[in-house]
Amino acid sequence: MQAHSQNAQRTKEAYDVTVIGGGVVGCAVLRALACAGLSACLLEKGGDILSGASKGNSAILHTAFDAPVGSLEWQCMQAGYQEYLQIHEALNLPLLKTGALLIAWSDEEAQKLPDILHKAHQNRVTDVAPVPLEQLHAQEPHLAAHAKAALHVPGEYLIDPWSAPLAYTLQAIAHGAEVMRRAEVLSGERVDGHWHLQTSQGMVRTRLVVNCAGNYGDLVEAICRPSPFAITPRKGQFVVYDKTASRLASHILLPVPNDRTKGVVITRTIFGNLLVGPTAEDQQDRTTAAIDEAALQSLHQAGVRMLPALAQEPVTATYAGLRPASQFKDYQIEALPTEHWITVGGIRSTGLTASLGIGQHVLGLVNQHFQATGETRPTHWPHMPVLSDYHPRDFQCKGSGPLVCHCESVTRREIEAALEGPLPAGDLGGLKRRTRAGMGRCQGFYCQANVVEMATQAGLRVDGIDAMPGGNA
Ligand SMILES: Cc1cc2nc3c(=O)[nH]c(=O)nc-3n(C[C@H](O)[C@H](O)[C@H](O)COP(=O)(O)OP(=O)(O)OC[C@H]3O[C@@H](n4cnc5c(N)ncnc54)[C@H](O)[C@@H]3O)c2cc1C
Fold first, then answer.
1. Is residue 70 part of a domain?
2. Which residues on neighbouring strands pair with residue 342, listed in sequence order?
3. Residue 305 Cα, ligand 1 centroid: separation in angstroms?
4. Pairing of strands 265-268, 274-277
5. Which class for 130: exposed (0-12), middle (13-18), buried (19 or more C-beta within 10 A)?
6. Is residue 184 domain-shared with residue 314, that is, in the same domain?
7. Is 76 contained in some domain?
8. How far apart are CA 23 and CA 31, in angstroms?
């Protein structure tokens, strides 16, 4: 691949900073550092960026109204939220301003709403307010009748969970960053003031390392020191309903959260579907997020209890993601000045929102402990293709040419564009996330052969990879 060969020749030179892990957090950190003028490299062991936790989430841009008060998570979420609002138009990234309704379905849950409201205001999300039940049902006419009480959270929005981190990475590349995929960091040692990182693609020299390895964060941390945190992946399964179901909910419908999880959400996706999930199941396996029938059934039943008309809606897909949860509630972000290492671990369930804020925070640590760079000053703004169902798509534009994926209306030229450029799709999952080909009702049954042929002709490695792996539909 173009990006690989460009990068291979740089392995003899030392970078100012190397980010390990191309999830949404690593991509945003890379952007912050590269746009501040540092020579930066991203090492990702998967065939493409977003091969880990970041490939399957709920895609909500959270306000942090319910984050632990005063936590680093809260700080990074609010900074990330604000920065996304500031930059998304310049990057042509979509935003769907749905707002959310947090609904209590029992008297016991209703008793918790005043505390949630108080916490939201402590967290400076001051527009959160109670909604009278008549208004709730007027706004969401398909809601089951037994709702007891609700809060309106106007600032909770939906975004495209893959185009955003891809845009951050492309912007970093436009500012000189390099990205190596299929480059697993295997070990590292400090030699003459530099880290020598041994990867599956050879050695990379760097002055500073930022560990953003998600579900492998504690294992990568052990390269530098005994890890102060241990990752236990927390699986979240989802059911994706057909686009016809999206008429059933205009807001994001949130449950009353508990200590461990935000609970089962019903939300549209920016791609036009309706989503019910996630579950919260601890597991040891750091890579595989298996789907199980019983969990999906119980999600479906939970969805139907809240939106009875969902019972008639067909399911398009199912998927699961793994949250990089540690034994700590808060993010584990720390600079180790002597070791020339920054740890970014345990970014459990809010990393999509917080990623840009984490990037700012890491840049602050770099300035404080390692190298005075000043602020991020982006001068190049990649223009992202729009995949949102709520915004004009390529097939609606003049001269778009033939469709390849009819379910998701993906054009041939969209697929061709995703197979070239500074960071072409690195595997079929990456191609799917860049175009939505194969993500629709038939799940690739009709277009997969054509997509694979186009990918193969473009030199994409398709061997040994799940042909069209899943993710947020
Ligand atoms: C079910 C679910 C729902 C969620 N909903 C939301 C939501 O609505 N809103 C929100 O803001 N957040 C949400 N999140 C949280 C968000 O998805 C995560 O916080 C975020 O994806 C974590 O990103 P990361 O970059 O830390 O980890 P990852 O995405 O896992 O990235 C780490 C990367 O490091 C790579 N790697 C690991 N080891 C090595 C190595 N040795 N060498 C090189 N590379 C390596 C991995 O391949 C991986 O790509 C949700 C998460 C889940 C699972």
1. no
2. 210, 335
3. 30
4. antiparallel
5. middle
6. no
7. no
8. 12
Residue 83 lies in a domain: no
Residues 404, 420 within the same domain: yes
Q: Could you tell me if 273 and 206 lie in one domain?
A: no
Determine the structural domain holding residue 133 and report its residue range.
Answer: 100-154+234-323
CA-wise closest residue to 195 among 224, 171, 221, 170:
224
452's CB contacts (< 8 A; 6+ apart) are 428, 462, 467
125 in a domain, yes or no?
yes
Q: State how many domains the chain has.
A: 3
Residues 242 and 314 in one domain: yes
Question: What pLDDT was estimated at residue 12?
Answer: 58
Task: Judge if 347 and 301 occupy the same domain.
Answer: no
Provide the pLDDT for residue 105: 96
47 touches ligand 1 (CB under 6 Å): no
**Which residues make Cβ contacts (< 8 Å) with residue 29, sequence separation at least 6?**
19, 210, 212, 344, 355, 358, 359, 362
Q: What's residue 8's pLDDT?
A: 45
Coil/strand/helix, residue 174: helix
Q: Which of 50, 55, 57, 181 best tests ligand 1's pocket when mutated (most atoms within 8 Å of CB)?
A: 57
Q: In terms of domains, do 150 and 242 share one?
A: yes
**Ligand 1 atom index nearest CA of 27:** 25
- Please, which contacts does 218-221 make with residues 24 or more away whose CB atoms are closer than 8 Å? 218/326, 218/345, 220/20, 220/21, 220/185, 221/343, 221/345
Asked if pLDDT for residue 9 goes beyond 70, the answer is no
